[in-house]
Fold these 3 entries.
Entry 1:
Amino acid sequence: MIFTNARIIFPDAIRDDVDVVVREGKIAELPTRIEPSIEAIDLGGYFLAPGFVDLHMHGGNGHDVMEANVNAFRAICDYHASGGTTSLLLTTATAPFPEILLALTQIGKLGEEIPQIAGAHVEGPFISREQAGAQNPEFICEASADLVGCLLEHRDVIKRITIAPETKGALAAIKEFYAAGIVVSGGHSNAWEEDARAALENGMRSVTHTFNCMSSARRRGTKRVAGLLEFALSEPKICCELIAEEHHVSPALMKLAYCAKGVDGISLVTDATAGAGLAEETTFQLAGKKCIVKNGACFLADNNGALAGSASRVIGLVRAMIRNAGVSLPNAIAMASLNPAREAGLLEKGEIAIGKDADLVVLSPELEVVRTYVAGSLSFRAESRNPEVLP
């Protein structure tokens, strides 16, 4: 397979003078323009980007990760492929612990059948009740040695876990997960600055949905003290998840995050729930809670104004960062591909380079997803706007 006549998006530039040759699911060559052949796919000047990697998403198209079955996982992956996602971490919710373990078992088993599944993100149950957000507080618990041990039995599946650093047992758990090669992300947290610093020292290297469900600066005694938010923005070792879809954060906050962290310090995530892809006013479930789709976002049905994840796909976040934060196209794409791939330890994904997986997205000049390829195989095809150029 050869992709030709494309504007190829690299981490630091856009080039239109090279082609992409794919063999056996890998990017094999990046030659300068080659002679037309029957194998070549002429992209007609459209963009060719690396496939997006979503570190944090709970569902889509009416299905939730906690359903823990092949039909749900396929529906979720198919929906997010339409937004350019080629790899994702299926994210569990705060729920009865046996249900979390079942979901992890199924993610490990079905990940061998569904190539987009790159592992799991465990969000909760070791979180703060004060910052629970849409997570079900009924099932929040402390990070006991027994529960941590149960999760570590799934260390090959879990790529990422969200923990509130200030909660009981959190620091010991963070240290164990870090030693096991699992990325620990601080989130759903009411931490003070010293709690966050202790977590960093024990292995925390990320924060979950920056600005949302996390502590910010508060007065203590005569001075104001940083919360998890300010600590994350100021600490170079911390990578920040960002749901850049204009419901969770405003344009000014997108720009603030970009100014503070730069291109290398942000991973765009959808935090999409089952409502993603559903029609307005449709209801759905999130960890046993009734939710509803309104104005292109997801909300708890019985709590007016409380967000319940998002209805977004990654391409929408890319466009929002360009529009609202003045981010260049290569930088916005890197936040959606290269950065999260590194975060998840997916070293063969996230950029167009020789030897990397041929996970690719064809984008129109308006940054609409036209085609999505996983390991060189077509996983999504939009209704063709120009069938002569894009067969």
Entry 2:
Amino acid sequence: MIADLKICIDKVVNPLSGEAESVEKRVEDISEKNGEIHIKYNREGLSPEDKRKFEDNILNSIKDKIDPEKVLFSSFSKNSSDIYKKEEKKEEKKEEKKDSSKDASLKVGHGDKITQKRNVAGVGKVIAIASGKGGVGKSTVSVNLALSLKKMNKKVGLLDADIYGPSLPMLLKKRGEKPRANDKKKIIPLESYGLKLMSFGLFVNEDEPVIWRGPMLGGVLNQFLFDVDWGQLDYLIIDLPPGTGDVQLSMAQTINVDGAIIVSTPQDVALLDATKGLKMFNQVKTPVLGMIENMSSFVCHKCGEEHFVFGKEGVKSKVEELKTQFLGKIPLDIEIRKGSDEGKPFMEFSKNQSGPIWKSYMSIASNVDKIFSKNEKESKGFLGKLFGK
């Protein structure tokens, strides 16, 4: 098998130089492990786009020999800050003797093929926060909702699943920090404001574009769900990217999501896309807990007048049409924007608790928690009747 694959790969052309692999010899190792093919190559001088093309060319050359879903790539370079495989410095090797943990890394590849949905170890409920459209404040809502649940004495984790535009490290003041791995090779999530955090943004430079195929996104999402030591959590909140793309589908196929929340502004163009998002969850059999109206209105600090910048009660009207729940509305306020930019989320600071935004978030968190409490009571009541308990 390996010999046949090597013959095919030798014919692959490097998009940068135009030379065949038999001449360049970038591929250093091809091996088989647990039914998967691992290909290690030298990425020196290749841009992210060149890397993608090179890997695509390899996959196309061997697709008749092996299922591309079973192929995992890893790359190395003497002079690169690539996120997947870093050369350890001598000083870091000395540190390892004192500390059993080391820098966490991500697999480059399509990930494991999922045959059935799994639960995330140690996690009570998984909540997906989604929006059909970008720019509606979904990530800000995710962070502040998580902090609101924490204030209800819940243990909460945040998973930033927006691979192309991860923003949670900025919102939680963790820019530039890197996760570590424990002695069981599990990734240790960072902690911020009492929340456990995992984000793709912790593995890449902020100005580095991510140019990936859909299956590779699913592979990283699988790692963040199953190769992270989340510990014991009441809630794991997944901040999804906008739209109804590969990440959403991978999540729905991979894990049992206990509920999805749709975030939208009141304006019609946002509601149009939010409706598509909600219907996507219905199609993949994921329960929708309800909708949150963000940036519902703005109260002028000078005149005190309330302005409905993006329209009035658009989400409230839409939930009736879609037969789902209205979880609450959050006003637009400059303090939320400032706190987000500075990594100081609104719901973490008690100075804000006298205002309407604080009350809105606590009300939404309570509504979400009540939905699960009610469902558990109804389930227990049904079992009680069934078994005479």
Entry 3:
Amino acid sequence: MIKFRNVSLQYKDELLNNIIPFWLLHSQDNEFGGYFTCLDRQGNVFDTDKFIWLQARQVWMFSMLYNNVEKRKEWLECAIQGGEFLKKFGHDGNLNWYFSLTREGKPIIEPYNIFSYTFATMAFGQLSKATGNKEYADIAKKTFDIILKKRINPKGKWNKAFPGTRNLKSFSLPMILCNLSLEIEHLLDNEFMETTIKECIHEVMDVFLRPELGGLIVENVNEDGSLSDSFDGRLMNPGHAIEAMWFIMDLGKRTNRPELIIKAVETTLKTLEYGWDKEHEGIFYFMDRKGFPPQQLEWDQKLWWVHMETLISLLKGYQLTGSQDCLDWFEKVHEYTWKHFKDPQYPEWWGYLNRQGEVLLELKGGKWKGCFHVPRGLYQCWKIMENIDAGK
């Protein structure tokens, strides 16, 4: 039987004495502001481009730690300088958030990606809590309003799909709105909050979760909610589905719906059983619901974020329902994750492994991996286990 006190301390120590010091030391751009995220194994910068997803996620992370763990001056300073860089350079002046910038803050890629907006909202929502700065709160609220207006066609004029032939809805946006709505609840009025939560839960649990597929979640459906027999329509992303389930568990707790929590736990376990590599262990990145070859050549890689999000969902599931299956799976995924992703020699964790669990890229950060999934996962697991140990 797992000893929650010991394991929670393991996660806490890794977060506060390994991961966070790494990003504080190596990622901050003291000349131009913002953060370097392309860092090699030792933390050296190998590319200076700045990606809005990762800039915003790091602002959120250090603000969140300042708000919830300890009022450390260096954490707040790190968050504010990143927030100021984003405020000045991250958008076009009308809160249309670019995808990437040069080191100095000049735009490289247009604001085609809705998730630049979602992570900016998260960042400024949490930063407004940390500072009490009304300007940050306004940025978060106004950006959230833009997201809701863009929901039907998130890419806008940058949408490459020919209109009318195969109009698909993506799981990614309603999934992240489940989490984002709770993140900025302090900025929303109650009626609007309740409506948003209801819509998000419906999309995730009634549209993308498919009973005819044994209770699994697909990444894309036709606009009318039917399944599409195409590469995108057959795409399964186990990590996405499992991450969404801890968002749903949080919403189930927030709305006092135990049946929703139970369904989210069941979906987590079904997805994990489906996505687990029976031969080499670990969770596949992409799969095809009909068993055809996925279009993504990296389909069988094992990724850091997939395993971190799974650990959170399993622990929440155990905490909220007492599911022994969640606990058994947590021990299994915990063992795999710490064995394969933690660098035994230098701080921070690997991001990309091959199917056999061997390191593919000797980097600690890049275009997609930054100061987010590893520290957020460590924080969540630490706190959940701390609460379980305290009988909560």
